[in-house]
Design a protein that fits this description.
The complex is a heterodimer of chains A (568) and B (317).
Chain A (H helix, E strand, L loop, with lengths): L5 E4 L3 H12 L4 E4 L23 H5 L12 E4 L1 H5 L6 E3 L24 H4 L1 H4 L15 H15 L10 H6 L15 H12 L5 E2 L34 H11 L3 E3 L3 E7 L6 E7 L5 E5 L2 E4 L3 H10 L24 E8 L14 E3 L9 H5 L8 E7 L3 H10 L5 H10 L1 H4 E8 L8 E9 L5 E6 L4 H21 L3 H12 L40 E3 L14 H16 L1
Parallel strand pairs in A: 1-2, 1-10, 2-6, 3-16, 10-17
Antiparallel strand pairs in A: 3-4, 5-12, 7-8, 8-9, 11-14, 12-13, 13-14, 15-16
Chain B lengths: L6 H5 L3 H5 L3 H13 L13 H14 L11 H4 L1 H9 L34 H12 L16 H20 L8 H8 L4 H19 L11 H6 L12 H5 L43 H10 L22
Classes of the chains: A alpha/beta (568), B mainly alpha (317).
C-alpha cells in the first residue's frame, strides 16, 4: 500500500470521522484509544452489540466514564493561580467518557450547526475587553459541505419548515432533514407552546437519532435514558456506530486501552515519525506513521502536546506561540425550571425534543452597557429536560434531606413526574488565563502528570446569564403557571447555583486554536500544527470561539475536512 | 458455573451453593443468604453480623419505610445487604460492579442481560480496588495521594456509631431507640458524617436502582415509587411520550418478570402496587414546598449532560 500511514489518537467524534475518511480512501489507519471497547462486534460483519442499558447505577459507577481515581484532573481558579495555589481540587473536572466512541457513546446527539457570526466574531461583533476574541481562519461556507456529509452519515432528524428564518439566515441549509422529528415530549411541547406565545421561535431539535429504522438500526422509542447513557438499541448515531464501525470494516485497526504519551519526532523536530504508547499491560510501544491525528478531546490533546516537549519544542510540541492549553472554553449553562400539576414525565424521550435560538444574540444596548460590554451573547436552549429516579433521589440527598423527609419526597413530591427545565448553552469567552497545563505534582496511575485546569468565568458569561435566565424562567412560568414554579423560580434567581456547571458541561473547546498566524495560533485552518505539519488536530482543541451550540457536529465536520486534506 | 475466587468465599459456607447458580438467580441467592442470616455467624459477605445489624438499623433511619413512611425503605429493598455485596464486590468473579446489558427482560426481550455482570479489565479493577479497599499506603495506589476506601468508611463509621451509642445508652446502635439513632446519625463527628453520606448514596442506589445489584428487592423500590425502571426494548408509545400520564401513572407496567420470562431477580408473585398519592396533595405540605427551594440550586448537578443536570463531582479536594 502506497498511501501514507495514519495513527489516530482517540476514537471519539473527531478520531472516528478521520478514521472513516482515511480508511475508506485506502490509507493504513491505526486508532489508539485509551478506554475500553463496550460495543462487542464493532467493525465486524454482524450487527454491533452493546453492554449499555437503562441502568442508573452503572452510569454512576464509571462504566464508560473516566475513573477519576485512576486518572484525576486538578483544578484552580485564576485568582488562586495568581496567589500561587497549585490546585484546589483533585478529581473529575469536566471528564468525558473514556471509551471507544468517546463522548458520543452517551451524548444526546444534539447536532446544531454553528452560525456564520460564530466564525467571524472579531470582525463582525468586535473585541471583548479581557477576552481573546478572534476570527476563525475559515467561514461557515467552508464548513457547510462537511456539515452536510457528516449529517448524511449520522442520520439526522429535524424539520426545516419549522426552523426560524434568522437561524437559516445564519446557518443556511440546502435541503430538508433526512428524517422527521421524534414524537414531541409532552413537557417540551408545553414549553414550546409557551415560548411561541411569548413571541419566541422553538423548533424540533436537530439530532442524530433515528425517528425511523435506518441502516439496520431501529427507530428511537423514547426510553428516557438518553443523555448520559449508552443507547441500548443503537437508535442513536455517534462516532463508533456511524463512523468507526465502517472505518474498521474498511481496514482501519482499533486498539483499545492504549495510552499515547508522546508524539515522536524526526531529527530536527519538524516532522512527526509516530507515537509512543503504553498498552493495557503497561508495556511500552512505538508505532511509526506518516501522519499523527490528535483527537483526544481538547484537554487531553493539549496535555499530549505538552507531554511531547523535547529539544526542539521546549514548551510543548508546536507551542512556540505559547497558545497550547490556552483559551479553554466550557460553555456556561443556565437553567429555568417549571413544575407542572399534571404528570409531565419530562425525562421520557431523547433528553429533549425542542430547541430555540432566540437567546443566541448578540444583544446590544443597556443590558450589555451595564456590564461594561459592547454586546451579550447566549446560545441555543435545550427545552424540556427532566430527571430520572436516582437523579431525583440524589438531588434530595444533595440538599441534605435524610430520613422520612427524603423517602417522603421521593414518594409524594415525585419531581421526576412534574418538573421540567430549559437549559441555555451559552457561549463563553476565550481567555488566555483559562488554560490546561501539566500538574507539577499529581500523577495518574501510569505515572504521567495529569492535566491541571485553571479556569474562571469572564464577566461576559455572568452578565449574559443574568440577562437571559429570567427570560427562560418566564417561559417555564407561562407553560406551568403553578405556585411551585414561582417558588422554584425565586429560588433559582437567588442562587448562583442556577447558573453553574462550568466544569460539568461536557462541552470542552479551545486549548490549541487554529489560525493563519503562527504567532497567535497553534494549528492552521486544516488543523495542522504550524511547526509540525504532519501532526493534525481533529477535535475541539482548534475551536477559536465556543459559540452557543453543542459542539460535536462541528468537531466532526472539522475532522472530516482535516482528514480529506491529509488525503489530497 | 462461576469460579470461586477467594479464600473468603471458601469460608463463606452457603455461598458455594449460590455460586453454582445461573447468573440471574445468583445475586438474589447471595443476598438472601445474608438477609436470612445463613452465612457463618449471621454476618454478611463482607460485614460481620454486628456490623450488618448496625448498618440495617442505620439505613432504616436514613431511608425509612413503614411505619415512618408508607413507601418502601431501606429494609424493604434489602439496602444493607446490597451495600454489603457492593463492599465485597471484588471477591466474586465477575465482580458485581457493572450489571450487563442491554436488556433485563422486564420491558420486553427474553432474558436478563443485566444479571450477566461485565468483567472488569485490569485497569478498571485497579480503580475499584482503590475505591473499595483504599490506597493502604501502597505506592502503586497513592500516585495522586491517599484514598480512604469504601470498606473503611463503612467499618469505621459503623464502629463509631456503635461506640457512641454504648457510651450514651449502654446499648449498641441497633438496639438504641429511634430518636437516639437519629441524633447519632446527625452527629458532626467526621467519621460518622462520611459514613452517613456514603450510606445515603449507596442506599439510594439500592432503593432506586435495578434489582440485579441486590437492592430493590422484589422491585419494591420501583413499585412503591411508581417507577417502571428500564424500558428497553419496548420503550414508550408516541402517546405515552406526548401526552401526560394518567394520575395512577404507569406503575401497572411493572409486571412481574415471571409472567414474561422463566427467571430473573425481578421474579415475584407480588401484584403491582400503585401507591402514588393524589396529585393535588403532592405539593400541599409546606415542608415539601421547602424542599423545592432547597433542590433548585442543585438542578445543574444531576447526572452529567442531562438538561437538568450536569454531573456530580467526585474525588477528594
Amino acid at each position: 500500500m502506497s498511501r501514507p500511514s495514519i495513527v489516530i489518537v482517540g476514537s471519539g467524534a473527531g478520531g472516528s470521522v478521520a478514521a472513516w475518511e482515511l480508511a475508506r480512501s485506502g490509507h493504513p489507519v491505526l486508532v489508539l484509544e485509551k478506554g475500553r471497547n463496550l460495543l462487542p462486534g464493532l467493525g465486524g460483519r454482524g450487527p454491533v452489540g452493546t453492554l449499555f442499558s437503562n441502568d442508573e447505577v452503572k452510569a454512576q459507577r464509571f462504566f464508560e466514564d473516566q475513573d477519576p481515581i485512576l486518572e484525576p484532573r486538578t483544578l484552580r481558579t485564576v485568582p488562586e493561580a495568581r496567589r500561587g495555589v497549585a490546585r484546589s481540587f483533585i478529581g473529575d473536572v469536566n471528564d468525558l467518557p473514556t471509551v471507544v466512541g468517546g463522548g458520543t457513546i452517551h451524548w444526546d446527539a444534539k447536532v446544531p450547526r454553528l452560525w456564520q457570526q460564530d466564525f467571524k466574531g472579531l470582525s463582525l461583533l468586535g473585541p471583548i475587553p479581557g477576552a481573546n476574541v478572534a476570527d476563525w481562519p475559515l467561514a461557515y461556507e467552508d464548513l457547510e459541505p462537511f456539515y452536510e456529509e457528516v449529517e448524511a452519515q449520522l442520520g439526522v432528524q429535524g424539520d426545516l419548515s419549522q426552523m426560524p428564518s434568522f437561524t437559516l439566515a445564519q446557518a443556511p441549509r440546502r435541503r430538508q432533514f433526512e428524517m422527521p422529528p421524534n414524537p414531541p415530549m409532552y413537557a417540551g411541547r408545553r414549553l414550546a407552546e409557551a415560548a411561541q406565545q411569548l413571541g419566541y421561535h422553538p423548533y424540533p431539535y436537530p439530532m442524530a437519532v433515528n425517528s425511523r429504522p435506518r441502516d439496520g438500526r431501529p427507530a428511537c422509542n423514547s426510553c428516557g435514558f438518553c443523555s448520559g447513557f449508552g443507547c441500548p438499541i443503537h437508535a442513536r448515531g455517534g462516532a463508533a456506530i456511524s463512523f468507526l464501525h465502517e472505518a474498521i470494516r474498511a481496514g482501519a485497526q482499533l486498539q483499545s486501552r492504549c495510552f499515547v504519551h508522546r508524539i515522536d519526532l524526526g531529527r530536527g523536530g519538524r516532522r512527526a515519525v509516530g507515537v509512543s504508547y503504553l498498552d493495557e499491560a503497561g508495556a511500552e510501544h512505538r508505532v511509526r506513521a506518516d501522519f499523527v491525528v490528535l483527537a483526544a478531546s481538547a484537554i487531553e490533546t493539549a496535555r499530549l502536546l505538552l507531554l511531547s516537549a523535547g529539544p526542539h519544542h521546549r514548551d510543548g510540541l508546536g507551542n512556540r506561540s505559547g497558545m497550547v492549553g490556552r483559551n479553554l472554553m466550557f460553555h456556561y449553562f443556565s437553567v429555568g425550571a417549571g413544575v407542572f400539576a399534571e404528570r409531565a414525565h419530562s425525562w421520557r424521550g431523547p433528553a429533549t425534543t425542542f430547541t430555540l435560538d432566540d437567546f443566541v444574540g448578540p444583544v446590544y444596548g443597556s443590558p450589555a452597557r451595564a456590564a461594561g460590554l459592547p454586546y451579550l451573547k447566549g446560545g441555543c436552549c435545550e427545552v424540556g429536560g427532566g430527571t430520572l429516579l436516582l437523579e431525583e433521589a440524589n438531588l434530595y440527598a444533595g440538599a441534605g434531606l435524610r430520613g422520612a423527609a427524603l423517602t417522603g419526597a421521593l414518594r409524594s413530591l415525585a419531581l421526576r413526574d412534574h418538573i421540567t427545565g430549559i437549559q441555555l448553552n451559552a457561549e463563553d469567552m476565550p481567555q488566555l488565563s483559562n488554560r490546561v497545563d501539566l500538574d507539577p505534582r499529581i500523577r495518574d496511575f501510569r505515572g504521567f502528570p495529569v492535566p491541571r485546569i485553571t479556569h474562571s468565568q469572564h464577566r461576559f458569561e455572568l452578565a449574559a446569564a443574568a440577562y437571559f435566565a429570567p427570560l427562560i424562567q418566564q417561559i417555564c412560568q407561562t407553560a406551568a403557571p403553578t405556585a411551585e414554579t414561582q417558588l422554584i423560580g425565586r429560588a433559582l434567581a437567588g442562587a448562583a447555583g442556577g447558573h453553574a456547571g462550568s466544569y460539568h458541561t461536557a462541552h470542552i473547546m479551545g486549548t490549541a486554536r487554529m489560525g493563519d498566524d503562527p504567532r497567535s495560533s497553534v494549528a492552521d485552518p486544516f488543523g495542522r500544527l504550524h511547526e509540525v505539519p504532519n501532526v493534525v488536530l481533529a477535535d475541539a482543541s482548534v475551536f477559536v470561539s465556543s459559540a452557543g451550540f453543542n459542539p460535536t457536529l462541528t468537531i466532526m465536520a472539522l475532522a472530516l475536512r482535516a482528514a480529506r486534506e491529509i488525503g489530497r | 458455573m462461576q469460579r470461586v475466587s477467594t479464600r473468603r468465599e471458601l469460608m463463606a459456607g452457603g455461598a458455594l451453593a449460590a455460586l453454582a447458580l445461573a447468573p440471574p438467580a445468583r445475586v438474589r441467592a447471595l443476598i438472601e443468604e445474608v438477609a436470612r442470616g445463613r452465612l457463618a455467624g449471621g454476618g454478611g459477605r463482607f460485614l460481620s453480623a454486628v456490623e450488618l445489624g448496625t448498618l440495617r438499623a442505620a439505613t432504616a433511619r436514613l431511608l425509612p419505610g413503614p411505619p415512618e413512611d408508607p413507601g418502601p425503605g431501606a429494609l424493604q429493598v434489602h439496602a444493607a445487604e446490597a451495600i454489603d455485596l457492593m463492599l465485597g464486590a471484588l471477591d466474586l468473579d465477575p465482580p458485581l460492579i457493572h450489571a450487563g446489558g442491554p436488556f433485563s427482560g422486564r420491558a420486553g426481550g427474553s432474558r436478563d442481560d443485566f444479571a450477566h455482570f461485565v468483567p472488569l479489565d485490569a485497569q478498571a479493577q485497579l480503580g475499584w480496588r482503590i475505591r473499595l479497599e483504599g490506597s493502604r499506603g501502597l505506592p502503586e495506589r497513592e500516585f495522586a495521594g491517599p484514598v480512604v476506601g469504601r470498606q473503611e468508611v463503612y467499618r469505621s463509621g459503623l464502629a463509631r456509631l456503635d461506640r457512641l451509642s454504648r457510651r450514651q445508652t449502654g446499648r449498641g446502635f441497633a438496639q438504641a431507640p429511634g430518636d437516639v439513632q437519629d441524633r447519632l446519625l446527625g452527629s458532626r463527628d467526621a467519621i460518622v458524617a462520611r459514613f452517613v453520606q456514603a450510606a445515603v448514596a449507596d442506599g439510594l442506589q439500592a432503593l432506586c436502582g435495578p434489582p440485579e445489584y441486590g437492592g430493590n428487592h422484589d422491585l419494591a423500590g420501583w413499585r412503591g415509587l411508581g417507577w417502571r425502571g428500564d424500558a428497553e426494548p419496548d420503550g414508550y408509545t408516541p402517546a405515552q411520550v406526548s401526552e401526560p400520564d394518567p394520575p395512577t401513572g404507569i406503575v401497572a407496567d411493572v409486571r412481574p418478570a415471571a409472567t414474561r420470562t422463566s427467571s430473573g431477580p425481578g421474579t415475584s408473585t407480588a401484584p403491582p402496587a400503585a401507591t402514588a398519592v393524589p396529585l393535588d396533595s403532592a405539593f400541599a405540605d409546606p415542608a415539601r414546598r421547602r424542599v423545592l427551594a432547597q433542590v433548585a440550586p442543585l438542578l445543574l448537578r444531576g447526572r452529567r449532560g442531562r438538561a437538568l443536570g450536569t454531573g456530580v463531582r467526585t474525588g477528594a479536594p
